């Protein structure tokens, strides 16, 4: 373990110990009379609402219904899109047992769809354990650069849908090689699955739509994090960012949402929280669901180490969509 990481973990332990000690002192300083709590003692929190009453609404997708909130894959395998320290914490937290635990919790709240990433070495084993334990998820898989690898994914996991990986599609768009993406989509169509295109650039969805490709859906990052170096210099007034491709601009989401809203095919928005940079989750979720179509969904990454993000996000989605039904 590196000194930096050890220091981080030790500091967390020290804070936890301090909080525990403070709680003990607080309890000693709040005596009870006759077993009853003092009048000025804090109220006991209300019991949590059962998961059965907080089901994430569904949308029609192909021949099935999928949850409008989809479990994202990045945090499950340490793809933090923030910094190396957070990525290491995610990898340490997400053992196979923890991945399965979170997927089961998603099921209880009505999330019945998983965004799968084939680049995770343990991904297949985790999913197979989850299903062996009785879990059920529709899979919307990211594709890979080679057709052969994508065919192997389809044969083994039998996903509901697969889409061309967003960063690969962005690169093809920038290099003028979108014909290769179109050919990949044709070959995946022959496998009998729903086919889509992923991207971080609104222009990619607009082009595919204008050319009427034979695809079923789009997956779009609401932050245009794959701009070219020249585009970033223009946006940032000549400045260079410290972390390539991890710059998030507040004016980006409305541009992607506008294109998604205009698209005839279903869309899935992702990184609506800016990979953890957005502090107002309520506002981010509201903006997403008010901006996309009724038959569109959201991929959301989950890292419930500090709080119950599964429950929190499902409660929020349930409430926001119920208010618009």
What does this structure look like?
Helix content is 44%, strand content 13%. With 325 residues, the protein is α/β, with parallel strands linked by helices. The protein has one domain: TIM Barrel. The strands form 2 sheets. Strands 3-10-9-8-7-6-5-4 form an 8-stranded parallel sheet. Strands 1-2 form a two-stranded antiparallel sheet. Helix 3 (96-108) packs across helix 4 and helix 6 (166-175) packs across helix 7.
Could you please say which CATH topology applies here?
Answer: TIM Barrel
Number of domains: 1
Shape descriptor: globular
Q: How far is it from the N-terminal to the C-terminal residue, by CA?
A: 51 Å
User: Which class of secondary structure composition applies to the elements?
Assistant: alpha/beta
CATH class: Alpha Beta
Beta-strand content bin: 5-15%
Taking all residues together, what is the mean pLDDT?
87
Report the biggest beta sheet as strand number plus sense, adding barrel if it closes. Answer: 8 strands, parallel
Q: Please compute the radius of gyration using only Cα atoms.
A: 22 Å
Say how many strands there are.
10
Concise account of the structure shown:
The chain has 325 residues and is of the alpha/beta class. 44% of the residues lie in helices and 13% in strands. The strands form 2 sheets. Strands 3-10-9-8-7-6-5-4 form an 8-stranded parallel beta sheet. A two-stranded antiparallel sheet has the order 1-2.
Topology summary:
Layout: H1 3-28, E1 58-61, E2 64-67, E3 69-71, H2 84-93, H3 96-108, E4 113-116, H4 123-132, E5 138-142, H5 147-157, E6 161-164, H6 166-175, H7 178-189, E7 194-199, H8 202-210, E8 217-221, H9 229-235, H10 252-262, E9 267-270, H11 281-291, E10 297-300, H12 309-322
Parallel strand pairs: 3-10, 4-5, 5-6, 6-7, 7-8, 8-9, 9-10
Antiparallel strand pairs: 1-2
